[in-house]
Amino acid sequence: VQLQAFGGGLVQAGDYLGVSCTASGRAFRLYRMGWFRQAPGKDREFVSSIDWNSGRTRYVDSVKDRFTISRDSAKNTVSLKMNSLKPEDTAVYFCAAATVDSGSFEYWGQGTLVTVSS
């Protein structure tokens, strides 16, 4: 499974931005897709995920009510809409995928940089 992330960029605090990620490959079934981020000098942290069949979503507390994750099953694409961005949201955002076979995040995208200026 290959993951290709799109979006990201430089915005000001309070602005919105979207990132998306498309999964491709042969003979796979998605179980869950999600987003992680890594800020400079910090460990990678979970941001949000969505279960592919049920649509159940999860968010880290710091982004609840600001970020929205969604999926397009026909396109194997997950999107993250980020509103009311804060400087502390600045990070490289990585998409991740779990297949039905693995059940855990084992496929990772290349990362896309989101920079929020104050």
Report the uncertain regions. Answer: none
Helical stretch tally: 0
Q: First CA to last CA: what distance?
A: 37 Å
Strand fraction equals over 45%
Let me know the average pLDDT: 96
Q: Report the order of strands and helices.
A: EEEEEEEEEEE
| Overall radius of gyration | 14 Å
The largest pleated sheet is described as: 7 strands, mixed
Search tags:
mainly beta; 118 residues
Topology of helices and strands:
Elements: E1 2-7, E2 9-12, E3 17-24, E4 30-38, E5 45-51, E6 57-59, E7 67-72, E8 77-82, E9 91-99, E10 107-108, E11 112-117
Parallel strand pairs: 2-11
Antiparallel strand pairs: 1-3, 3-8, 4-5, 4-9, 5-6, 7-8, 9-10, 9-11
Can you give a write-up of this model?
0% of the residues lie in helices and 56% in strands. The chain has strands at residues 2-7, 9-12, 17-24, 30-38, 45-51, 57-59, 67-72, 77-82, 91-99, 107-108, 112-117. The protein is an all-beta fold. The model has no long low-confidence stretch (mean pLDDT 96). It contains no helices and 11 strands.
